[in-house]
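Assess the record.
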Amino acid sequence: MNRLAQLLHVKPGEGTRAAVLFAQYFFIVAAGIAGKAARDTFFLSRYEKSLLPLMLAACAIAVAVSAAVYSRLSGKLSARLLFDIVNVLFLLGIGLLSLNLQGQAIPGFYIWVEIIIAILTLSFWLMASEVFDPRQGKRLFGLIGGGGSAAAIVVGASIKPYVKIFGPSSLIWVIAVVLILQWVLGRVSLRFAHSKPARSAKPRQEPGGKRFDPYLTAIATVVCLAAVCSQVVDFQFKMFAAEAMPKEADLAAFFGHFYAFTG
């Protein structure tokens, strides 16, 4: 173990914290993989596929609003309380929507999964930045992020045999279980967080200076164009998949393998 720690450049006292965060991120990404496979399968097989572009736009708006609300609450509530609240809401939402996953509940489930993935990922890396200082983060965040890649491979490859035995609807249970596991590990991670994380001073704005310099404007433009292109490709890809595989089990298995390979 000591030799492994030396190879990974992990110092004494950092190994336990890094292992907990690695496992937590594993289950966060596992929830995302299972959630994406389930939402895409249900929407393409049980709902009107032509409305998928509207769903992509609705997800973008919902995530933006949710992130803004989360950011506002993070300044008013303690990290532990806010973490508990969002996890309770996520589990309640999954439970209520799964009671009758037909009709309007399907687009609701689609958007809810996207919000879960975005907020949990955001909260995780904010938490990680409080557990490790910037110098430690340079060495350890790559290793911790490997938990996400491991989850994509393990969970994605396991979805096909799982849905063949238990059916696509049982993916709801997988999402709920991994959400609970990451919640438990997240509470452990919060114990490692600094009680008073250091806050960087806000840079002073020069009088009459521009709010956004040309470099930031160019970066924002590239990011927006890349997002638009990826959504167009994503829409076409899912439509082709739905036409080629009309059965739910085949769709779920395909998306599981797809997210495993991309992971």
Q: What stands out?
A: Residues 1-8, 195-201 have pLDDT under 50 and may be disordered. DSSP finds nine helices and no strands in the chain.
